[in-house]
Amino acid sequence: MKHYLPLMFALILALAGNGCAVDTRPVVTVYAYHSDPPLYLPEKNNDLSQEWVKKFNHWQDQVEFRLVHLQRTELNRLVDAGKPYVILWANPLWFAFRDSQLQSSEPIFWDADIVISSSQQPLQYQGPEDFRGLRLGGRKGFYYKGLEQIIEDRELLRVDVGHDIDNYQRLSRNEIDAFIMTRASFLYWQQHKPELKELYVARTPHDAYSRHLLVSHGYQNLLPLINDFVEHCAQSLQWQARLKYWGVEKLLNPFELEFEELMDIEPQQAPDDPKSPTSSL
C-alpha cells in the first residue's frame, strides 16, 4: 500500500492544479448601455448581452471580455474623453462624430426603432412629420433622426425616461401619445410579457439599422477575432436557439423578411382607416 501513496499524492496534486487553473488572457472591458430586455435584464441575472460575452469567451482563448453596463450618457462622456472602449450592440453612425477613428465589426443582427401607440388611438406613422402636435416618449441620451426641427418649432413635446416600460405606463395613463422603442425589445415583450396589451405598432419604422461591436483605435487588432466569432454565431444552431428564446432570432437576416413576418404578427386595420398598413398587438 505504501508504494501507491506517492502515486495517489501526485494524482491529487494534478487534480487540484487543474481545478485551480488561472485564466491568464488579457482582460478587455466591453460596454453595453441598453437598459431594456433582451439586452439587459438585471433582475434575472442573465440577458442576451451576458450570453454573447460568455459565448465569446468560451469560443476563443486569446482575450477575456468583461461586460460592464453604463447609461448612454455615461458612455458618451467616456468616448468624448478619448478613453479606450469596446461597445456592444451599437452602430458606428451613433458614435462616429464622437470618435472619427472608431471601427466596427460585421453586423451581429439588424434592428429598428418602431413607433408604439395605443390601439384605442393608433398613430398611423409614415414619417417624423406625423409627430407634430403630439407628446412623444423617448429615452434619455438617445438620438432620433429627423426630430430636432419639429422640437425646435415647439410642435413636438419629447419627454424622456430611463426604460421602455416607463413609456408603456405613461402611454397607459394617456400622458403621452406614442413612444419609440427597439424592435428587439418589442419582440421580447411579445414572447415574455403577454400582459402588455392594447399596443399599436406602426408598420413604418422610425429608423432601421444594424448592430455591431464598436472598438476604439487601440482595440482594432481585435476585429478579425470578433468578426470570426460573429460569423460563427450566424452559422451556429445553438446560438440561433438562444436568440429564439430571447425572441429575436428573425433579426439575424431581416432583409429576407416582410415586416409582418419580422414582427411575427398579422397586420390589422386601424379602427378609422380601412387601408391602414399597421399592426396591432
Protein topology:
Blueprint: H1 5-19, E1 27-32, H2 48-59, E2 64-69, H3 72-80, E3 86-90, H4 92-95, E4 103-104, E5 109-118, E6 134-139, H5 148-152, E7 156-161, H6 164-172, E8 178-182, H7 183-192, E9 199-201, E10 207-215, H8 223-235, H9 237-246, H10 259-263, E11 267-270, E12 273-280
Parallel strand pairs: 1-2, 6-7, 6-8
Antiparallel strand pairs: 3-10, 4-10, 5-8, 5-9, 5-10, 9-12, 11-12
Could you explain the architecture of this structure?
- This protein has 281 residues and is an alpha+beta fold.
- The chain folds into 2 domains: 26-110 and 209-256, D-Maltodextrin-Binding Protein, domain 2 (3-Layer(aba) Sandwich); 112-208 and 259-280, D-Maltodextrin-Binding Protein, domain 2 (3-Layer(aba) Sandwich).
- 33% of the residues lie in helices and 25% in strands.
- It has 10 helices and 12 strands.
- The protein has helices spanning 5-19, 48-59, 72-80, 92-95, 148-152, 164-172, 183-192, 223-235, 237-246, 259-263; strands at 27-32, 64-69, 86-90, 103-104, 109-118, 134-139, 156-161, 178-182, 199-201, 207-215, 267-270, 273-280.
- Strand 11 (267-270) and strand 12 form a beta hairpin.
- Residues 260-281 have low confidence and may be disordered.
- Keywords: Signal.
- Residues 1-21 form the signal peptide.
